[in-house]
Amino acid sequence: MRPAALSTLALPALAGLAASTVVLADLCLRGPMAWHYTQPEAIEGGVEALLLAAALALAAWRGGRAGLLAGLIVAGLYLRRHHVDLPVLAAWLAAEGWVAWGLRLQRGAAPARLLTAAVLGFALWLALNLVLHALWLARPPALLIALAGFTALGLALQRGLPLLAAARIAFTPLPPAERAAWSLLAAWLLVLMARSNQVIGFDTLWYPARGGLVLAPSGSFFEPLGLVSAVHYFPKLWELSILPWEGLGDLSFPAAQALIGLAGGLTILAHWMGQGGLRGTLRPIALLALATLPALAASALQLKTDLPAWFFALFALDAALRWLRGEGAAQLSWFLLGTGLAVSAKLTALPYLLATAAVLALAFWRRPELRPRGRTWLDSAGLGWASALVLGIGATLVLRTVWLAGVPTIGPEPALRLWLALGFELREPAGSLRWMLPPEWADAPRLAWELLLAPAQLPKIRIGWIGNIWLLAALFALGWSLRAQRPEPGPGLDRWQRAALWAPALAGLWLMFGVGYVSRGSDGNYFVVAVTAAALLAFVAAARRAPGAAARVGLGLALGSACLLQASLVFVAAAWSPPGTRTLDLQLDRPVIDTPERLQRDLKRHRLEGLRARLQAEPHTTRLLLIGPAGAAHLLPVRGESLEHVMASRPEYIAGAEAFAGFLQRSGVGLIAISAHESDAVRAALDQALATLPHEAMWRDPDWLLIALGEGARQRDAAAARGRETAPLTSPP
Prior knowledge:
The chain has helices at 3-30, 33-37, 40-62, 64-81, 85-105, 114-134, 140-158, 162-171, 176-195, 202-206, 211-214, 237-242, 252-276, 282-291, 294-301, 306-324, 330-345, 350-366, 383-405, 413-421, 444-453, 469-482, 495-513, 528-545, 549-573, 595-605, 609-615, 643-649, 657-666, 680-690, 718-721; strands spanning 623-627, 639-642, 671-675, 695-700, 704-709. By secondary structure, it is mostly helical.
């Protein structure tokens, strides 16, 4: 290789390696990650993951039936060793069922698109789900049976597995090196699936994975539950969709569905990378650089609502780009429907899609050839079905929030102020939060540095990092363009399509720096739509501007170093769960249902074994208020909420003894659990509030006291019955 070509290759490769090294050093030297990387589960699990990737790459390189069979055996053994094979199979079949139903509703489409079919089938299933909620039949076991029947009937009518068939058609003709690169992406998804057996995030147990207790304990999510925290009044599209899996009692099942959504979003990105001119082995490596982003991959493992919102936002962006390419006015309808589903999953998707909508409105005005002519709304088969389903779903979710909380959305503050000005009233006991703080512009330069290269001091970003390879790729593209390097020949993305992607990217930039957050730097998952749009623009621009094959190899090496760093962070620190997967062994007979066993470590940490056992005898619909660590409330088998969350959303409820007693009565609290390690001041305040309410101490151990409230409370104890003075209820035993 000539010196010029060698330097062209080395410059981006070394820049990418340096950027990754700086972040790793910051997280290990200033941050806490050094311990995580040295744990046996991380080291041996990491070696196993690398061996898996190598084996799948070799099998894909070999190709043919022998290579396919070898790859399936390796993947199957890996999934079985980590006892997540059944969740993968179940989630894949459910996705096949959604696509099958979508294809049935799209009859006459030429050609039928699997992407719109998947969204259409998912919307149909969710609509049926809502019908069961309206009939108060939506307990997790019943929903699981309904999902199984829905899937089986769809596949029987379709007489095939459309996703599997499409994957085989797309993968088989690829050259060996490209097949091997795609297999690395598949290996990462398998590693995430294995990692799901370790990751149980705080938010996971707070509301997404406890729908049977805090969403629809009596079979309907329309039931007023007396809960305060705003998260219980958000749009619940994602929680509704994963509620059936709760009937199996293991978190790996909804995690598998989340990873299906991640794969779907990557499929959309793969299409537009190819359209933009990023092809060959560079495309799967670029996709892997996005799939390993901690902000995205950790969101999937923690069942955060950001992941489905990201997928539907990409679906909407896909439709926007297709309309700008001249594929017909029906794409505008798909954009609006994707926006509705994204916002129904999480409200934070709205600013990004509003920014893109502004670009579309400008294009509508400036490009008359794109305006609708003749039939518009039904220009695409299945669009009428999709419109009806999505509008019905969105309206139902909004009406549910109005019914329970009194306002269409529980936040953020500008929207809540608008609802109150229009005459809505925030209904008790629903609470809101202060979502947005004034920006600190003086802190912006330091914050930018830490977001990109030194995240160790940002509490939530360091486990949900937004990466920096997208910025590096943009700098590579800028540098190569300054050398008067012409873009690689090809259609690429036109200026309107680039503007449609720039809009959410710039909206994310404003949200990063133009809004203040309680946690400095906010959560990385809030910005995944913006980072994805920026990465798509940057990767395509860098690949097209690269001066020759050597520069593209250097870009690939820079992407590869980012993949390794990002994947390692997700592997050791997602949600601060135990690092890695498992130490190496040959045990293949472990049961799939193991979440209860994994939760035992948290029960022991909070010393909740006795309290949990006692509450097993109570109806699961019992309303509990826990005074102690907030996470402890999520581990109990009743409809529990912590006092900490009540204080954050409705501080007026604890403003005094009278206010607190009134809250306990109005919200239907039947039990109070208080930690024996709470301060004397907290215990005294509770005693003062309980003085006017019927109550009794019904159970205690050295760590917790359980108090029953209400007219049916039994005599406190024999001493109280004899009129003797007793110690305050909350005094330690």
